[in-house]
């Protein structure tokens, strides 16, 4: 499963890197993921508060899309790990809510 691809023959556009140093933006996305994970767990224990969970989910996905746009626009490299971590979490959360997707 590939979320983003880069033309390996064109190093100037090769901004998708899983081994570069964390950036301020990647740290923010990782922090948001941790916060959302904690809040979702609390909300699911609170009478399975699905509307709030979906709101948190929407915020996380929106911020991830913004980060992915940054990956594609900027020349400086940003790590892909936060996007992959969000992807893994979103798939687990959707599975838990009964939304299953073929891999």
Written account of the structure:
With 103 residues, the chain is mainly alpha-helical. The chain is 60% helix and 4% strand. It has three helices and two strands. It has helices at residues 24-45, 50-73, 81-96, and strands at residues 16-17, 78-79. The chain has a two-stranded parallel sheet with strand order 1-2. The longest helix is centred in the middle third of the chain and has 24 residues, at 50-73. The radius of gyration is 15 Å and the shape is elongated.
In short:
The protein is 60% helix and 4% strand. The chain has 103 residues and is mainly alpha-helical.
Total strand count, please?
2
**Structural class designation:** mainly alpha
Which stretches are low in confidence, meaning pLDDT under 50 for 5 or more residues running?
A: 1-16
**What is the mean predicted local confidence, pLDDT?**
81
Q: What would you call the shape?
A: elongated
How much β-strand is present in the residues?
Answer: under 5%
**Strand line-up in the sheet with most strands:** 1-2
Summarize the SSE layout with pairings:
Layout: E1 16-17, H1 24-45, H2 50-73, E2 78-79, H3 81-96
Parallel strand pairs: 1-2
Helix pairs in contact: 1-2, 1-3, 2-3
């Amino acid at each position: 499963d590939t979320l983003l691809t880069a033309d390996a023959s064109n190093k100037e556009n090769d901004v998708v890197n899983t081994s570069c140093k964390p950036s301020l933006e990647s740290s923010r996305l990782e922090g948001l993921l941790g916060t959302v994970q904690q809040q979702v767990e609390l909300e699911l224990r609170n009478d399975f508060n699905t509307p709030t969970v979906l709101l948190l989910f929407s915020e996380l996905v929106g911020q991830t899309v913004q980060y992915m746009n940054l990956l594609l626009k900027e020349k400086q490299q940003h790590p892909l790990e936060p996007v992959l971590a969000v992807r893994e979490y979103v798939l687990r959360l959707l599975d838990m809510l009964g939304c299953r997707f073929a891999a």
